Description:
- This protein is an alpha+beta fold.
- It has helices spanning 6-15, 22-49, 54-59, 145-149, 155-178; strands at 62-70, 73-81, 84-86, 91-95, 99-103, 110-112, 115-119, 124-129, 137-139, 141-144.
- Helix 2 runs antiparallel to helix 5.
Amino acid sequence: MIEITLEQIERVQKLVEGVKNGPHRVFYNAVNRGLSKIRTESAKEASSVFAISQETIKSNSRTTQTKTSSGDNVIGQVKFSGNMIPLFKFKVAGSHKQGLKVQVKKGNSSSFKHAFTANLGNGTNVIERITSNRVPTETVFGPSAAHMIGNSDVEPNIEDKAKKVIDERIEHEIERILNGY
C-alpha cells in the first residue's frame, strides 16, 4: 500500500491554497498516474522473476483500476485477476520419454516424470498422466498472473516504482496548477 505523507499534504495545501480544489486535483491526478504505472510495471516485474513473457502475462490477466474521492480523500486501487496459465507458456524442456522439466520461477525447475506436451485442439499444453496407464490424464497449470504479481519478490518492486511516480507527479501537478492549467 502506498500512502501520501502528512508533510506532502501540508506542502501541497500551502502551495496551491489559492486555487479552487487545488490539493484535490494534485492528489487525484498523481494517484491516477501511479495506478497506470502499476498496471504497466506489473508484467515487467513478474517476467523478471518468473520464466514467462510480459506478453503472456498481459494477455492472461484482467485489471480493474478504481479511483474514489469523497471530500478530501483520494483512494486508488488496482486489482488483478485471471485464470491459471497453462504450464506450456513457461519454460519447458525435455521429451515424453524422459519426462519434462518446467521452470515456472527463474532459477527453480520442477520435474514431471509422467508428463508430455500435446496439442488437444485448444493449443499445446503440458499433460500429465495420473496413473501408470495411458488414461486418465490432466492438463497442468502454473500460477495466474494475479498470483505472480502478488508474489513477495514482485509486489514490493511495483510498489516502490509506483511510489516514486506518485511523488514525481505530485511535483508535476503542483507546477501545472501554479502555471494555470
